[in-house]
Amino acid sequence: MKNKTIFITGVAGFIGSNLAERLLKEIEGIKIVGLDNMNDYYDVRLKEYRLEKLSSSKTFSFVKGNLADKELINSIFEKYTPQVVVNLGAQAGVRYSITNPDAYIEGNLIGFYNILEGCRHYPVEHLVYASSSSVYGSNKKVPYSTDDKVDNPVSLYAATKKSNELMAHAYSKLYNIPSTGLRFFTVYGPAGRPDMAYFGFTNKLLNGETIKIFNYGNCKRDFTYVEDIVEGVVRIMQGAPEKKNGEDGLPIPPYAVYNIGNNHPENLLDFVQILQEELIRARVLPEDYDFESHKELVPMQPGDVPVTYADTQALERDYGFKPSTTLREGLRKFAEWYKEFYM
Length: 343
Known about the structure:
The protein is α/β, with parallel strands linked by helices. The protein has a domain at 5-187 and 226-263 and 309-324: NAD(P)-binding Rossmann-like Domain (Rossmann fold). 41% of the residues lie in helices and 17% in strands. It is built from eleven helices and 15 strands. The protein has helices at residues 14-26, 44-55, 70-80, 96-99, 101-121, 156-175, 197-206, 226-237, 268-281, 313-319, 327-342; strands spanning 5-9, 31-36, 60-64, 84-87, 126-132, 179-184, 187-188, 211-213, 220-221, 224-225, 244-245, 251-252, 255-260, 266-267, 295-297. The strands form five sheets. The chain has a seven-stranded parallel beta sheet, sandwiched between helices. A two-stranded parallel sheet has the order 7-10. A hairpin with a 5-residue loop joins strand 11 and strand 12 (251-252). It is globular, with a radius of gyration of 20 Å. It starts with a strand and ends with a helix. Residues 6-247 form the NAD-dependent epimerase/dehydratase domain. InterPro entries: Epimerase_deHydtase, NAD(P)-bd_dom_sf. This is GDP-mannose 4,6-dehydratase. Keywords: NAD.
Protein backbone atom coordinates (compact mmCIF):
# COMPACT_ATOMS: atom_id res chain seq x y z
CA MET A 1 0.00 0.00 0.00
CA LYS A 2 3.06 2.22 -0.18
CA ASN A 3 2.28 5.57 -1.89
CA LYS A 4 -1.34 4.54 -2.53
CA THR A 5 -4.51 6.51 -1.90
CA ILE A 6 -7.03 4.84 0.40
CA PHE A 7 -10.65 5.98 0.77
CA ILE A 8 -12.08 5.14 4.22
CA THR A 9 -15.74 5.81 4.94
CA GLY A 10 -16.84 6.14 8.57
CA VAL A 11 -13.35 7.47 9.32
CA ALA A 12 -14.43 9.17 12.57
CA GLY A 13 -16.01 5.91 13.70
CA PHE A 14 -14.47 3.43 16.10
CA ILE A 15 -12.87 1.02 13.61
CA GLY A 16 -12.32 3.60 10.85
CA SER A 17 -10.30 5.99 13.01
CA ASN A 18 -8.12 3.20 14.44
CA LEU A 19 -7.48 1.86 10.94
CA ALA A 20 -6.58 5.29 9.53
CA GLU A 21 -4.26 6.00 12.46
CA ARG A 22 -2.43 2.70 11.99
CA LEU A 23 -2.02 3.17 8.21
CA LEU A 24 -0.78 6.77 8.53
CA LYS A 25 1.78 5.71 11.14
CA GLU A 26 3.13 2.66 9.38
CA ILE A 27 2.86 2.94 5.61
CA GLU A 28 5.23 5.17 3.71
CA GLY A 29 3.67 7.72 1.35
CA ILE A 30 0.11 6.58 1.99
CA LYS A 31 -2.65 9.12 1.42
CA ILE A 32 -5.97 8.70 3.19
CA VAL A 33 -9.24 10.35 2.26
CA GLY A 34 -11.78 9.96 5.05
CA LEU A 35 -15.53 10.50 4.90
CA ASP A 36 -17.90 10.77 7.87
CA ASN A 37 -21.25 12.45 8.41
CA MET A 38 -20.47 13.04 12.13
CA ASN A 39 -24.05 12.24 13.09
CA ASP A 40 -25.24 12.31 16.69
CA TYR A 41 -26.23 8.63 17.00
CA TYR A 42 -23.80 8.80 19.94
CA ASP A 43 -21.69 11.51 21.59
CA VAL A 44 -20.09 13.52 18.76
CA ARG A 45 -17.23 14.50 21.09
CA LEU A 46 -15.89 10.96 20.72
CA LYS A 47 -15.88 11.29 16.92
CA GLU A 48 -14.16 14.67 17.18
CA TYR A 49 -11.56 13.18 19.56
CA ARG A 50 -10.79 10.36 17.12
CA LEU A 51 -10.63 12.76 14.16
CA GLU A 52 -8.32 15.13 16.00
CA LYS A 53 -5.72 12.35 16.31
CA LEU A 54 -5.71 12.00 12.51
CA SER A 55 -5.79 15.65 11.50
CA SER A 56 -2.13 16.33 12.32
CA SER A 57 -1.10 14.13 9.37
CA LYS A 58 -0.38 16.03 6.15
CA THR A 59 -1.49 13.05 4.06
CA PHE A 60 -4.95 12.82 5.63
CA SER A 61 -7.90 14.62 4.01
CA PHE A 62 -11.31 14.72 5.68
CA VAL A 63 -14.64 15.17 3.92
CA LYS A 64 -17.74 15.72 6.03
CA GLY A 65 -20.72 14.27 4.21
CA ASN A 66 -23.25 11.53 3.76
CA LEU A 67 -22.72 8.17 2.05
CA ALA A 68 -26.19 8.51 0.52
CA ASP A 69 -25.13 11.69 -1.33
CA LYS A 70 -24.24 10.17 -4.70
CA GLU A 71 -22.85 13.39 -6.15
CA LEU A 72 -20.46 13.78 -3.22
CA ILE A 73 -19.29 10.15 -3.39
CA ASN A 74 -18.67 10.44 -7.14
CA SER A 75 -16.73 13.67 -6.64
CA ILE A 76 -14.44 11.95 -4.09
CA PHE A 77 -13.69 9.10 -6.50
CA GLU A 78 -13.08 11.57 -9.31
CA LYS A 79 -10.84 13.90 -7.32
CA TYR A 80 -8.74 11.36 -5.39
CA THR A 81 -8.95 8.16 -7.56
CA PRO A 82 -8.35 5.81 -4.61
CA GLN A 83 -6.75 2.44 -5.29
CA VAL A 84 -8.32 0.81 -2.21
CA VAL A 85 -11.71 1.59 -0.66
CA VAL A 86 -12.62 0.54 2.90
CA ASN A 87 -16.31 1.04 3.53
CA LEU A 88 -16.86 1.19 7.30
CA GLY A 89 -19.48 3.95 7.16
CA ALA A 90 -22.90 2.57 8.09
CA GLN A 91 -25.65 2.96 10.61
CA ALA A 92 -24.69 0.47 13.31
CA GLY A 93 -26.65 -1.14 16.12
CA VAL A 94 -29.30 -3.85 16.26
CA ARG A 95 -31.75 -2.17 18.64
CA TYR A 96 -31.71 1.23 16.95
CA SER A 97 -32.74 -0.44 13.68
CA ILE A 98 -36.07 -1.29 15.32
CA THR A 99 -36.84 2.34 16.21
CA ASN A 100 -35.18 4.19 13.31
CA PRO A 101 -35.17 1.97 10.19
CA ASP A 102 -34.83 4.93 7.77
CA ALA A 103 -31.22 5.52 8.85
CA TYR A 104 -30.31 1.94 7.88
CA ILE A 105 -31.88 2.07 4.43
CA GLU A 106 -30.15 5.38 3.71
CA GLY A 107 -26.66 4.63 5.06
CA ASN A 108 -26.37 0.88 4.62
CA LEU A 109 -28.22 0.29 1.34
CA ILE A 110 -28.22 3.53 -0.66
CA GLY A 111 -24.82 4.52 0.76
CA PHE A 112 -23.26 1.16 -0.09
CA TYR A 113 -24.77 1.24 -3.59
CA ASN A 114 -23.06 4.63 -4.13
CA ILE A 115 -19.72 3.13 -3.08
CA LEU A 116 -20.17 0.20 -5.48
CA GLU A 117 -21.00 2.60 -8.31
CA GLY A 118 -17.87 4.61 -7.49
CA CYS A 119 -15.76 1.44 -7.63
CA ARG A 120 -17.38 0.55 -10.95
CA HIS A 121 -16.77 3.87 -12.70
CA TYR A 122 -13.37 4.65 -11.15
CA PRO A 123 -11.89 1.14 -11.02
CA VAL A 124 -10.25 0.23 -7.73
CA GLU A 125 -7.80 -2.54 -6.85
CA HIS A 126 -9.82 -3.70 -3.86
CA LEU A 127 -13.07 -2.86 -2.06
CA VAL A 128 -13.08 -3.97 1.59
CA TYR A 129 -16.35 -3.46 3.46
CA ALA A 130 -17.81 -4.08 6.89
CA SER A 131 -20.39 -6.77 7.23
CA SER A 132 -21.40 -8.09 10.66
CA SER A 133 -21.75 -11.23 12.76
CA SER A 134 -25.44 -10.22 12.90
CA VAL A 135 -25.95 -11.83 9.47
CA TYR A 136 -25.86 -15.24 11.18
CA GLY A 137 -29.20 -14.38 12.82
CA SER A 138 -30.87 -17.38 14.40
CA ASN A 139 -28.24 -19.81 13.07
CA LYS A 140 -28.10 -22.72 15.53
CA LYS A 141 -24.72 -24.12 14.46
CA VAL A 142 -21.65 -22.78 16.26
CA PRO A 143 -19.00 -21.64 15.63
CA TYR A 144 -20.35 -19.51 12.78
CA SER A 145 -18.65 -20.29 9.49
CA THR A 146 -18.75 -18.19 6.33
CA ASP A 147 -19.88 -21.41 4.60
CA ASP A 148 -23.12 -21.40 6.64
CA LYS A 149 -26.38 -20.21 5.09
CA VAL A 150 -27.33 -16.78 6.42
CA ASP A 151 -30.94 -16.41 5.35
CA ASN A 152 -32.55 -15.80 8.75
CA PRO A 153 -31.76 -12.23 9.88
CA VAL A 154 -33.47 -11.22 13.13
CA SER A 155 -33.04 -7.46 12.69
CA LEU A 156 -33.15 -4.91 9.87
CA TYR A 157 -29.51 -4.08 10.62
CA ALA A 158 -28.55 -7.71 9.91
CA ALA A 159 -30.67 -7.71 6.74
CA THR A 160 -28.86 -4.61 5.41
CA LYS A 161 -25.46 -6.21 6.05
CA LYS A 162 -26.47 -9.42 4.27
CA SER A 163 -27.73 -7.20 1.42
CA ASN A 164 -24.29 -5.54 1.23
CA GLU A 165 -22.68 -8.95 0.69
CA LEU A 166 -25.16 -9.79 -2.07
CA MET A 167 -24.73 -6.40 -3.78
CA ALA A 168 -20.92 -6.70 -3.61
CA HIS A 169 -21.12 -10.18 -5.15
CA ALA A 170 -23.24 -8.89 -8.05
CA TYR A 171 -20.83 -6.00 -8.73
CA SER A 172 -17.80 -8.31 -8.45
CA LYS A 173 -19.37 -10.60 -11.04
CA LEU A 174 -20.64 -7.91 -13.41
CA TYR A 175 -17.69 -5.51 -13.28
CA ASN A 176 -14.79 -7.69 -12.04
CA ILE A 177 -14.37 -5.58 -8.87
CA PRO A 178 -12.27 -7.41 -6.23
CA SER A 179 -14.28 -7.18 -3.00
CA THR A 180 -13.94 -8.60 0.50
CA GLY A 181 -16.63 -8.47 3.17
CA LEU A 182 -15.66 -8.67 6.83
CA ARG A 183 -18.06 -10.05 9.42
CA PHE A 184 -16.95 -8.32 12.62
CA PHE A 185 -17.76 -9.88 15.99
CA THR A 186 -18.56 -7.54 18.95
CA VAL A 187 -15.72 -5.03 18.61
CA TYR A 188 -14.61 -3.21 21.78
CA GLY A 189 -11.78 -1.08 23.14
CA PRO A 190 -10.79 2.49 24.10
CA ALA A 191 -12.89 5.29 22.58
CA GLY A 192 -15.39 2.72 21.33
CA ARG A 193 -19.12 3.07 20.76
CA PRO A 194 -21.14 4.10 23.83
CA ASP A 195 -24.09 1.98 22.68
CA MET A 196 -22.04 -1.19 23.19
CA ALA A 197 -22.58 -3.08 26.46
CA TYR A 198 -19.15 -2.55 28.05
CA PHE A 199 -19.31 1.24 27.51
CA GLY A 200 -23.00 1.63 28.40
CA PHE A 201 -22.56 -0.49 31.56
CA THR A 202 -19.64 1.69 32.65
CA ASN A 203 -21.64 4.90 32.17
CA LYS A 204 -24.59 3.51 34.11
CA LEU A 205 -22.56 2.11 37.00
CA LEU A 206 -20.73 5.42 37.35
CA ASN A 207 -24.11 7.22 37.53
CA GLY A 208 -25.42 4.76 40.11
CA GLU A 209 -27.95 3.32 37.64
CA THR A 210 -28.91 -0.35 37.21
CA ILE A 211 -27.45 -2.37 34.33
CA LYS A 212 -29.71 -4.84 32.54
CA ILE A 213 -28.17 -8.20 31.71
CA PHE A 214 -30.20 -9.76 28.91
CA ASN A 215 -31.41 -13.35 28.63
CA TYR A 216 -30.79 -13.60 32.40
CA GLY A 217 -27.05 -13.65 31.69
CA ASN A 218 -27.28 -16.70 29.40
CA CYS A 219 -25.68 -14.90 26.45
CA LYS A 220 -22.25 -15.46 24.99
CA ARG A 221 -20.38 -12.95 22.86
CA ASP A 222 -17.21 -13.30 20.83
CA PHE A 223 -15.61 -10.03 21.98
CA THR A 224 -12.91 -8.81 19.57
CA TYR A 225 -10.42 -6.11 20.57
CA VAL A 226 -10.24 -3.22 18.10
CA GLU A 227 -6.50 -3.59 17.41
CA ASP A 228 -7.08 -7.21 16.38
CA ILE A 229 -9.82 -6.05 14.01
CA VAL A 230 -7.49 -3.42 12.51
CA GLU A 231 -4.68 -5.97 12.08
CA GLY A 232 -7.08 -8.22 10.17
CA VAL A 233 -8.31 -5.37 7.98
CA VAL A 234 -4.77 -4.19 7.13
CA ARG A 235 -3.74 -7.69 6.05
CA ILE A 236 -6.89 -8.23 3.99
CA MET A 237 -6.58 -4.83 2.27
CA GLN A 238 -3.29 -6.05 0.80
CA GLY A 239 -4.65 -9.38 -0.42
CA ALA A 240 -7.45 -8.71 -2.91
CA PRO A 241 -9.26 -11.76 -4.34
CA GLU A 242 -7.64 -12.75 -7.62
CA LYS A 243 -9.26 -11.81 -10.94
CA LYS A 244 -9.65 -14.87 -13.14
CA ASN A 245 -11.98 -16.25 -15.79
CA GLY A 246 -14.02 -19.43 -15.66
CA GLU A 247 -14.31 -22.12 -18.33
CA ASP A 248 -16.91 -20.00 -20.12
CA GLY A 249 -14.37 -17.18 -20.49
CA LEU A 250 -16.39 -14.92 -18.17
CA PRO A 251 -15.00 -13.52 -14.92
CA ILE A 252 -15.33 -15.61 -11.77
CA PRO A 253 -16.37 -13.01 -9.18
CA PRO A 254 -13.21 -11.87 -7.31
CA TYR A 255 -15.21 -11.99 -4.09
CA ALA A 256 -14.57 -13.17 -0.53
CA VAL A 257 -16.09 -12.96 2.95
CA TYR A 258 -14.25 -13.53 6.26
CA ASN A 259 -15.11 -13.63 9.94
CA ILE A 260 -12.95 -11.49 12.21
CA GLY A 261 -13.65 -12.60 15.77
CA ASN A 262 -11.82 -13.84 18.82
CA ASN A 263 -12.97 -17.46 18.30
CA HIS A 264 -13.62 -17.58 22.06
CA PRO A 265 -17.12 -16.59 23.23
CA GLU A 266 -17.39 -15.23 26.77
CA ASN A 267 -20.39 -15.63 29.04
CA LEU A 268 -22.07 -12.27 29.72
CA LEU A 269 -21.86 -12.70 33.50
CA ASP A 270 -18.11 -13.44 33.29
CA PHE A 271 -17.69 -10.40 31.05
CA VAL A 272 -19.49 -8.20 33.62
CA GLN A 273 -17.28 -9.61 36.40
CA ILE A 274 -14.06 -8.79 34.49
CA LEU A 275 -15.37 -5.31 33.60
CA GLN A 276 -16.13 -4.63 37.30
CA GLU A 277 -12.63 -5.70 38.34
CA GLU A 278 -10.95 -3.57 35.70
CA LEU A 279 -13.08 -0.49 36.48
CA ILE A 280 -12.04 -0.78 40.13
CA ARG A 281 -8.38 -1.32 39.16
CA ALA A 282 -8.42 1.82 36.97
CA ARG A 283 -10.16 3.75 39.78
CA VAL A 284 -13.19 4.51 37.65
CA LEU A 285 -15.26 2.98 40.48
CA PRO A 286 -14.43 2.69 44.20
CA GLU A 287 -13.26 -0.63 45.67
CA ASP A 288 -16.36 -0.99 47.83
CA TYR A 289 -18.84 -0.43 44.95
CA ASP A 290 -21.98 -2.54 45.48
CA PHE A 291 -22.34 -4.17 42.07
CA GLU A 292 -25.04 -6.64 43.11
CA SER A 293 -27.56 -3.89 43.84
CA HIS A 294 -26.91 -2.34 40.40
CA LYS A 295 -27.50 -5.49 38.32
CA GLU A 296 -30.80 -6.76 36.94
CA LEU A 297 -31.27 -10.01 34.99
CA VAL A 298 -33.90 -9.50 32.28
CA PRO A 299 -35.34 -11.43 29.26
CA MET A 300 -33.83 -11.36 25.76
CA GLN A 301 -34.40 -8.20 23.69
CA PRO A 302 -35.94 -8.26 20.19
CA GLY A 303 -33.25 -8.53 17.50
CA ASP A 304 -30.67 -10.07 19.85
CA VAL A 305 -29.19 -13.56 19.57
CA PRO A 306 -28.05 -15.78 22.48
CA VAL A 307 -24.55 -16.50 21.17
CA THR A 308 -21.99 -15.17 18.67
CA TYR A 309 -18.98 -17.35 17.93
CA ALA A 310 -16.58 -16.87 15.00
CA ASP A 311 -14.96 -19.67 13.05
CA THR A 312 -11.73 -17.93 11.94
CA GLN A 313 -10.03 -20.82 10.11
CA ALA A 314 -10.29 -19.14 6.69
CA LEU A 315 -8.68 -15.93 8.03
CA GLU A 316 -5.83 -17.97 9.56
CA ARG A 317 -5.39 -20.01 6.37
CA ASP A 318 -5.38 -17.09 3.92
CA TYR A 319 -3.78 -14.32 5.98
CA GLY A 320 -1.92 -16.12 8.79
CA PHE A 321 -3.79 -14.17 11.43
CA LYS A 322 -5.97 -14.97 14.41
CA PRO A 323 -7.13 -12.34 16.96
CA SER A 324 -5.55 -13.06 20.34
CA THR A 325 -6.18 -10.17 22.78
CA THR A 326 -7.84 -11.53 25.92
CA LEU A 327 -10.99 -9.91 27.26
CA ARG A 328 -9.18 -8.82 30.42
CA GLU A 329 -6.36 -7.15 28.46
CA GLY A 330 -8.85 -5.32 26.25
CA LEU A 331 -11.16 -4.20 29.06
CA ARG A 332 -8.14 -3.02 31.06
CA LYS A 333 -7.12 -0.72 28.21
CA PHE A 334 -10.71 0.51 27.90
CA ALA A 335 -11.00 1.23 31.66
CA GLU A 336 -7.70 3.15 31.67
CA TRP A 337 -8.79 5.20 28.66
CA TYR A 338 -12.22 5.89 30.20
CA LYS A 339 -10.59 7.21 33.39
CA GLU A 340 -8.36 9.52 31.35
CA PHE A 341 -11.10 10.78 28.98
CA TYR A 342 -14.04 11.27 31.31
CA MET A 343 -12.67 11.81 34.83
